[in-house]
Amino acid sequence: MWHNVQAAPADVILGLTEAFRADANPHKVNLGVGVYKDEVGLTPILQAVKEAEKILVAAEVSKNYLPIPGEVSFAVPVRELIFGAGHPALHEKRVVTAHTPGGTGALRVGAELLRKFLPKATVWISNPTWSNHKGIFAAFPQKEYPYYDPAHMGIDFPAMLETLNQVPAGDIVLLHACCHNPSGFDLQPQQWDELVAVAAARKWLPFVDFAYQGFAQGLADDRYAVAKLAETGLDMLVASSYSKNFGLYNERCGALSLVAPSEHEATVAMSHLKTVIRVLYSNPPAHGGLIVATILANQGLRALWEEEVAGMRRRIVEMRHLLVEGLKERGVSGDFSFITRQNGMFSYTGLSDRVVDWLRGEKHIYMVAGGRINLAGLTTKNIAYVCDSIRQALAG
Ligand code: LMR
């Protein structure tokens, strides 16, 4: 069956991790995949997660299936985390939430649901976007809306808005709630207000990817776009992930929330979401969802978790500053101060693919094509090596 078949290319992000693991060079640095690392380069299990796991192990009595939309105690606190506890859409019962296998699972389930009900829609994605978005929505025609402007190292908001103003009603617009992946540049609140007005006027369907809540400004501030969009009373979908902010990468825990104009429509939407989930994976794995639900429901653990999220955010911001200073100190040409204006784990560095390839081949520093780096891969120990290597790469 496979005799005459060409091998598929490695995934542009996860394939880098495989190559990094196979690299025996002691100086190697992985700035590729978006995984948080601490000062010693480890991806820690959060303390709040460890505590929640102790509670769960002690109390667990069964490994029975979860319901199709997942852990029952998960949906309410997660919705409150996403939209804000006092959000009118929650009060009006216009939001339903399924617990999914990771943020990717949430996006994929959402795509399947939309394929059934909006089979003729085009999906509009930002230029650039997370590489996996294109594959997840492969069943739809896709178009790009302008986002990152390399000439000005920022967002071309007028061009973005102009395109979104022409998106036909019923098309799907994929948005990044915060910590835009890969650019690191986010809209300002007043720009979100303008975008929300366009969504409401044009009646396209927002599908928001919310994978990094807590990594931009904070857990509450980062929900600005999602909360504003949900106020419009339009249909929308939100895919959220607990890989990053709970560090639950390998537990595969995320959520898909459907916001509808009324409680009745939300209930109907959930009934169809259940049929989609049933044929894809039947019901989600329990452990990650139980951890999230336990932490969010326990005052002490929640406070500990919020502090740990803030700690991860602070460390990444510190690495942004150290990188900019390190490049400046070495006289690297160009102004890299834009790196401190970006949010989340990622920075679009402006380094060319030629430089990215050289850094990997010569220096064992791994970055995603297009020049995206994960700031969390930097530590006070490897930052001098990375800055020296970039200086060398740009000088040559
Ligand atoms: C990334 O962009 O590196 C992360 O979202 C991890 C992934 O699955 O690609």
The computed structural class is alpha/beta
Averaged pLDDT: 96
| Largest sheet report | 7 strands, mixed
Choose one word for the global shape.
Answer: globular
Instruction: Tell me roughly what share of residues is in helical segments.
Output: 40-55%
Approximately what portion of the residues adopt beta-strand conformation?
A: 5-15%
User: What's the tally of helices?
Assistant: 14
Assign the CATH superfamily of the largest domain: Type I PLP-dependent aspartate aminotransferase-like (Major domain)
Low-confidence stretches: none
Q: Helices and strands, in N-to-C order?
A: HEHHHEHEHEEEHEHEHEEHHHEHEEH
Q: Class of the largest domain, according to the CATH hierarchy?
A: Alpha Beta
Can you name the CATH architecture of the largest domain?
3-Layer(aba) Sandwich
Quickly count the domains.
Answer: 2
How many strands in all?
Answer: 13
Sheet with the most strands: spatial strand order: 2-10-9-8-7-3-4
What compounds are bound to the protein? (2S)-2-hydroxybutanedioic acid
User: What is the CATH fold-level name of the largest domain?
Assistant: Aspartate Aminotransferase, domain 2
